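Handout, section 3.2

Students often ask what a structure token actually looks like in practice. Rather than define it abstractly, here is a full record for UDP-N-acetylmuramoylalanine--D-glutamate ligase. The first block is the sequence as you would receive it.
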Amino acid sequence: MKIVVLGGGESGFGAAYLAKKKGLEVFLSDKGLIKEDYKKLLLDAGIEYEEGKHDEDRILAANWIIKSPGIPKKAEIISKINKKGIRLSSEIEFASEFTDAKIIAITGSNGKTTTTSLIYHILKNDDLKVGLGGNIGKSFAKQVADENFDYYVLEVSSFQLDDIQNFRPYISLLLNLSQDHLDQYNYNYEEYALAKFRIAENQENDNFFIYNKDDEMSMNLLEKLEIKAKMIPFSLKEKLKEGGYLTEDKMVVKLHDEFSMKIDELALVGNHNVANSLAASIAGKILKISNESIRNSLTTFQAVEHRLEQVAEINGVRFINDSKATNVNATYYALESMKQPTVWIVGGTDKGNDYTEIEDLVKRKVKAIVCLGLDNQKIIDFFKEKKELIYSTSSMEDAVKTAKSLSKSGDTVLLSPCCASFDLFENYEDRGNKFKKEVLK
């Protein structure tokens, strides 16, 4: 069997490495330049590769093509592959064919990384043999090649789910839906939402699907879709006979028996993190992890970098890095959890954002807006009638200096961009790291 891998990053290298280890003929092609450390890994593993171009004849002669999630599905080479009818898979699909481990897969518009990391922490804390992968951490495929885990906890994006055929998690979680990446889904919210629901499409009645009963789009689509897995909801708004819910000061999970815990004991703050903790606890209960062990994990978990990360308090001003907030809904959660007057740093590559969702929160919580991007006009036009203090900057240094000058003791400076980072930065991590560096300077 001839395998071609498109993309030479973490997931691309991992898929090629797994193919090689399984004795398959493999070739990796990247239209851009491959980073030096991945080139060395490819050479060490004896994997043939090309960079800076695509050898179309060779690619289109493959039996199975593995596509990295960063390659747009509208790319010319993808159209040619689809026209020829060659099987096209994501790394998670490819790797899942080579493991019997139980997979816990998490998707949603927001909270994926936090919830994935939290479930991994719950399993690891209970001494289970578990790997962490997908959209986070090390390549899932490389771990399948080298490790012998009983469980994998995978953060899964809609782009990875676009390219599955047989992927069947033991437990799947759909945390929430909001308008994101619409530029890749013909600006159609339902098309994007249905891509997320693919996480459950191959599940059978011995599998589990955890979903958000408060999420309007999820509930609308569940009326139309046939989910075979056992469905378990969570809600912050209503008491449930089975699943997870919130009372005044406690979170409760009813499954087999009852698990409850005071909200103020949770390591994570904010309502959205109560929802994430409920979803993670349900997964723990399905896996028969004890109440005591789940409670211990929820109190000892450390928040994910670049997600409402407390950077420093300087002259009474708190600086918070929420660079991972690359859509409006993620920033909604960040602004909702702000307790002090906030100077808000926002901007980047717009993905079809509609800012009306956060309009009221901005009016109530934000004292000044600092735009950070090559083109800030859309944000300025939307908020100029609503906020007097709006500033335009095109570098992190300027953005932090401006935010500092606008803040006083008792305020918070929040980087929560609503946008992708690619106009000025390599990725959201680069943006968050540069913010922290400027703050500490």
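Discussion prompt for tutorial groups: The chain has a mean pLDDT of 94. How would you have guessed this from the sequence alone?
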